[in-house]
């Protein structure tokens, strides 16, 4: 095994060759597909009379367009029904494993692959979805790709890519109570900027990440893309191995021992050289809320919305746009901002540990009058597990709606949408204009626990006051 970073080791091991463009032809070990970016890619294959080269390396599910209230077929949305039918037909035609609604394994693509043990250290993973960086939590190079690249992977199991630089982001120390992985990644994006990672892979390192569970690590890597990085990863360790052991697609018996030995060997070496290193202190991170229209426009719960004078020249123009769109005033406190809708779910925060933490704060409390609050499990398996633990009853008794699995209001390609200029407290990953289904809708990103605190109080609130 060559010396260096995990990124270098995995990249080199998967390099097929160097193209005349100077790009690397990179072999993709696992290709995840869903109903939104795959139909056009399959159509391009069919036009060229090509087959899927390695169907056993492709896994499909349906997530973006599925309704979370009533999943009876055919879907009420005609376009959504057409998209799921296209995926069903393409998977059948090419012998691709498909986790459909009602299979017990359907869910958000970035939730189901880890829970099935499909995502493993040292892999190259691609999916036609920007938040594919999630899988880097396992020590994989996981890349979101476009529709034409989905076609390329289906046809050749490779991608043409320029090699990235590697930035090590080190966070050390223990997080304070009420501060979560979501707060960590929002803090990092705030400090480094939404374009700070362009051209980079982010290696998250330090004692803070070492203490995190796998699901917390997935939250961090999920939003690497929001900081401009092409991918983010964490070196695999005992926590990674314990999470994977026994899962359906994880190695078994002697193969398990060999896999752990190899996974350990691909970790970044102690003397690995990085293109850049940034160091942060966990003690400096507070519960964080976005106030603007990019994930980088975030502040601690006790801070005020920055004034133009406090911002750099480069940040001032987008801030002015954000003040107007969000109808929030510079200098105002973010705490106390009225909310209309509270959403816990998405590929960032729809896993079982997210729901457990949210339920702790919902238990014995009531959603404020006039607030629409709902919980969307990230997969059918998460839903089943949550119900076995009685979490659904906790949420229902508190006045939350309990839904079926899907992407839901993260991007509103389904019936879950904001209306008019409603403000949403959301555990999802993007607060762009119109992201949650209304051209005037406003999104405040925060941790699931903070979403529950907002639902209980009817305003953006410091979850630490509920501890």
TrEMBL record:
Needed co-factor(s): [4Fe-4S] cluster
GO MF terms, alphabetically ordered: 3-isopropylmalate dehydratase activity
Pfam families in the record: Aconitase
Presence of the UniProt keyword Iron-sulfur in the record: yes
Domain Aconitase/3-isopropylmalate dehydratase large subunit alpha/beta/alpha: 8-458
Pathway in which the depicted protein is active: Amino-acid biosynthesis; L-leucine biosynthesis; L-leucine from 3-methyl-2-oxobutanoate: step 2/4
Catalytic reaction list: (2R,3S)-3-isopropylmalate = (2S)-2-isopropylmalate
Protein name: 3-isopropylmalate dehydratase large subunit
Family in the record: Belongs to the aconitase/IPM isomerase family. LeuC type 1 subfamily.
Residues that, per the record, bind [4Fe-4S] cluster: 347, 407, 410
Alphabetical keyword list: 4Fe-4S, Amino-acid biosynthesis, Branched-chain amino acid biosynthesis, Iron, Iron-sulfur, Leucine biosynthesis, Lyase, Metal-binding
EC annotation from Swiss-Prot or TrEMBL: 4.2.1.33
């Amino acid at each position: 095994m060559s010396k260096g970073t995990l990124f270098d080791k995995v990249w080199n091991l998967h390099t097929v060759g160097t193209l005349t463009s100077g790009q690397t032809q990179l072999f993709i070990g696992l290709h995840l597909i869903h109903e939104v970016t795959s139909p056009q890619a399959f159509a391009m294959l069919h036009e060229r009379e090509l087959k899927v080269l390695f169907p056993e390396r492709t896994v499909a599910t349906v997530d973006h367009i599925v309704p979370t209230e009533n999943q009876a077929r055919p879907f009420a949305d005609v376009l959504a029904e057409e998209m799921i039918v296209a995926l069903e037909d393409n998977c059948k035609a090419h012998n691709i494993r498909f986790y459909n609604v009602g299979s017990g394994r359907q869910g958000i693509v970035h939730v189901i692959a880890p829970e099935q043990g499909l995502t493993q250290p040292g892999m190259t993973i691609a999916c036609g979805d920007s938040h594919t960086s999630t899988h880097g939590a396992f020590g994989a190079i996981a890349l979101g790709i476009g529709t034409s690249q989905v076609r390329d992977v289906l046809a050749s199991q490779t991608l043409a890519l320029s090699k990235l630089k590697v930035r090590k982001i080190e966070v050390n120390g223990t997080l304070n109570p009420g501060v979560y992985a979501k707060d960590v990644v929002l803090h990092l994006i705030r400090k480094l900027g939404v374009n700070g990672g362009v051209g980079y892979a982010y290696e998250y390192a330090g004692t803070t990440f070492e203490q995190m569970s796998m699901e917390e690590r997935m939250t961090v890597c999920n939003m690497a893309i929001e900081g401009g990085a092409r991918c983010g990863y964490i070196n695999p360790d005992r926590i990674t191995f314990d999470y994977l052991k026994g899962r359906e697609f994880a190695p078994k018996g002697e193969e398990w021992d060999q896999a752990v030995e190899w996974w350990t060997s691909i970790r970044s070496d102690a003397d690995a050289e990085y293109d850049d290193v940034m160091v942060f202190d966990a003690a400096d991170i507070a519960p964080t809320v976005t106030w603007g229209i990019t994930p980088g426009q975030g502040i601690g719960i006790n801070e005020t919305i920055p004034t133009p004078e406090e911002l750099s020249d480069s940040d001032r123009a987008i801030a002015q746009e954000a003040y107007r769109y969000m109808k929030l005033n510079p200098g105002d406190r973010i705490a106390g901002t009225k909310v209309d809708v509270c959403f816990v779910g998405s590929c960032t925060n729809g896993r079982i540990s997210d729901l457990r933490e949210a339920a702790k704060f919902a238990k014995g409390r009531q959603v404020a009058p006039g607030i629409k609050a709902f919980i969307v499990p990230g997969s059918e398996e998460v839903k089943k597990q949550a119900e076995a633990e009685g979490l659904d009853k906790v949420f229902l008794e508190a006045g939350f709606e309990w839904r079926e699995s899907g992407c839901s209001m993260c991007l509103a390609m389904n019936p879950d949408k904001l209306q008019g200029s409603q403000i949403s407290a959301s555990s999802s990953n993007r607060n762009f204009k119109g992201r949650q289904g209304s051209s005037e809708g406003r999104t405040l990103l925060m941790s699931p626990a903070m979403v529950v605190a907002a639902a209980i109080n009817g305003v953006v609130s410091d979850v630490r006051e509920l501890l």
